[in-house]
Write a structure and sequence with these properties.
With 285 residues, the protein is α+β, with helices and mostly antiparallel strands. The protein has a domain at 21-205: Heat-Labile Enterotoxin, Chain A. 40% of the residues lie in helices and 12% in strands. It contains twelve helices and eight strands. The chain has helices at 2-8, 21-24, 27-30, 69-80, 97-111, 121-126, 134-140, 175-178, 184-205, 214-233, 265-272, 275-279; strands at 39-43, 57-58, 90-94, 115-119, 131-133, 157-161, 163-164, 169-174. The strands form three sheets. A three-stranded antiparallel β-sheet has the order 1-4-8. The chain has a three-stranded antiparallel β-sheet with strand order 3-6-5. α9 (184-205) crosses α10. The protein is globular and about 70 Å long. 35% of the residues are buried.
């Protein structure tokens, strides 16, 4: 111990690196939010963030450093403002079916047909991917609530950092058909989520999940059928044009995403998987 003290006592403090923001306020730990319910996201052909041909979703800024308090606070502040078109590393979801319904109805008036994507937060957590409570992080980083509601509008919002991978996705539904069912959330979304969760649990236990219930199978088939029809009518490889629509979402229209269009999915995967460096670049990865 004395020898160690002698070796370090004359080393200037600047040689000891300051802790990164991830060490001070770990988003890895914060991302282990206990959620046993579906995460919902509405989108359309004008959305900058939507499923790719590999059934993944990538944020508009998949390589932004988030290793300082200032970087996190600024990116959260930008994301919280609905009319700010600056790309951020977050993909927003909600746990509230009412919020998803309101967004779908509001956007449909100006943006056309809406889709609803559902993901499983337990699968995301099991793979070590980041999931943040929007209200908690906005409060921690002192971001002023642009709606003036003391973060009430963000209580049901969760932020996926950088990427959503295929195994997290429960399914995609066309909103116009989904809303024809009065209790669409209980009748369609929850059974599909339960079936997805059961398959996930079975894989964790290393057992064959067997034959699923007719209700779960039907919900899954409905999702796949509707997604197939959407893909036929609304290809994800559509041409993007800028300046055609009023900006409605903090995640943007695809017109502002055009700089990324020439890049392949593998590029985004490589960038999004650099999580350790982006949060903690002082370490070796």
């Amino acid at each position: 111990m004395a020898q160690e003290s002698i070796l370090t006592q004359n080393i200037p403090l600047e040689y000891f690196p300051a802790p990164t923001e991830e060490e001070i306020h770990p988003w890895y730990q914060a991302s282990h939010v206990v959620l046993n319910q579906p995460l919902l996201r509405t989108w359309d052909v004008h959305s900058a963030v939507q499923p790719t041909s590999t059934n993944c979703m990538y944020s508009r800024c998949p390589c932004q450093l988030l290793d300082t308090f200032e970087a996190r606070a600024l990116s959260l502040a930008i994301h919280a403002h609905d009319n700010n078109q600056t790309p951020t590393p977050y993909i927003s979801f909600t746990t509230c079916a009412g919020v998803a319904r309101r967004l779908a109805l509001t956007r449909a008036r100006k943006r056309g047909s809406q889709m609803l994507t559902v993901i499983n937060p337990r699968v995301r957590a099991a793979h070590g991917r980041y999931l943040l409570s929007a209200a908690s992080e906005l409060h921690y980083y002192g971001v002023r609530d642009p709606h003036g509601t003391t973060y009430q509008d963000y209580q049901d919002e969760y932020l996926c950092l950088w990427v959503v991978e295929e195994e997290e996705v429960v399914g995609h539904w066309e909103w116009d058909e989904l809303v024809e069912v009065d209790d669409w959330y209980e009748a369609i979304i929850l059974p599909a989520f339960t079936a997805h969760d059961e398959r996930f649990n079975a894989r964790l236990l290393g057992i064959n999940p067997g034959v699923w219930s007719d209700t779960s199978a039907s919900a899954g088939l409905t999702s796949r059928d509707q997604t197939s029809r959407w893909d036929e009518d609304n290809s994800l490889d559509i041409e993007y044009s800028s300046g055609q629509h009023q900006y409605l979402s903090g995640e943007g229209y695809n017109g502002s995403f055009e700089d990324y269009l020439g890049l392949s999915d593998s590029y985004y995967e490589a960038e999004a998987n650099s999580i350790g460096y982006l949060l903690n670049p002082s370490e070796d990865y």
